[in-house]
Amino acid sequence: MNRKEVLEIKKLFTDSKCCISRICGCYVDGNKNKVTTFREAFLSLDQEEIFKYYKIFRSALSGTFGKNLLNMEFPTDAETEEGTQSFLLKLRDSELKDDDMLELFFNKIIENYSYGENYLILLIHGAYDVPGKADDGMNMEDASDYVYNHIFCCICPVNLSEEGLCYNTETNSFENRIRSWIVEKPAHAFLFPAFNDRNSDIHNLLYYSKKPEELNDSFIDGMLGVRIPMTCKVQKETFAGIIADTLGDECSFNTIKTLHEELNSMVEAKAEQDPNPVEIDKFDMQKALEKSGVKDETINSFKEEFDESAGTNACFTAANIVNTKTFDVRTPDVVVKISGDRTELVETREIDGVKYLMIELTDNIEVNGIKVTNY
Known about the structure:
By secondary structure, this protein is of the alpha+beta class. Helices cover about 30% and strands about 30% of the residues. It has helices spanning about 5-10, 45-60, 85-95, 100-110, 215-225, 230-245, 255-275, 280-290, 295-310, 320; strands spanning about 20-30, 35-40, 70-75, 120-135, 140-160, 165-170, 175, 180-185, 190, 195, 200, 205-210, 280, 315, 325-330, 335-340, 345-350, 355-360, 365, 370. Strands 1, 2, 3, 4, 5, 8, 9 and 12 form an 8-stranded antiparallel beta sheet that branches. The protein has a two-stranded antiparallel ribbon with strand order 6-7.
């Protein structure tokens, strides 16, 4: 899924476009015991309650692709009759009306979800009449092409509210606030099937993690059975390691600066051609290194290093390895940030045997927020 497709689904969590038929929930304590479960027709709920659920669902479709939002694919073994994908399809097709299947779903989550505190599992079923598109790209609300049947699951931490004072309108006085259990924004969520090319894609799902480095691998593997991608931090570290180990003595300031510029240009060109999150593979990196003036023998070494460190067919999400907005230069004592498209302003020089980082100055310089006029 890309950002436009996510935004289209996100807009369904409003009164004007709501397509949710049913909502189910299971409250689990820190010892993995079910405290309570419920199942309701969504539109039968109180309006204020509906609004609060909308807010929870929208928050689980927020964040950065490749970090908080991840497209995940089912491997072949997950698509067998006994596989996880088949189970999710049956759950979707039941429209959450099968109590036994819901019980099994909640049990599978509790078994595989790693979290030592209280949490609430929310599961909804929706049937979205996908409007057709006119030649000018506008939605034709009265010309639906098909119905996108889906389930959306959110796992929300439940924590005690903080202690404090509150105002009692009945007694016109301030008093100790009664602590209550609060449902917080989702820590993890998934949408199945994926909404790719504005159509159902049963071979993929969209996964959300509030903290990009805490994907909850046991849940992804045991409950969903999809391929677990590298986290954004691991991608960044793996990329940096591949480049540093490949270049060795060739890993100069100018080489890395040129590589940054080449990758930036590549990302911009790909983004113009495809709305999906930009990915960088081995061949893209090889091309960028070649344009950066890296020697042929080093390029051959790069191929081996890439396969060993990341895997032959690995892809990196561009946002995790390339910062198109800034070019960072760091030493133990100094951090310099340059606009990503103005790397020509900085260079290295050796003066009297001492190496310096040289930055071209403009007419507008501020130091600690104070404009400097003499430099």
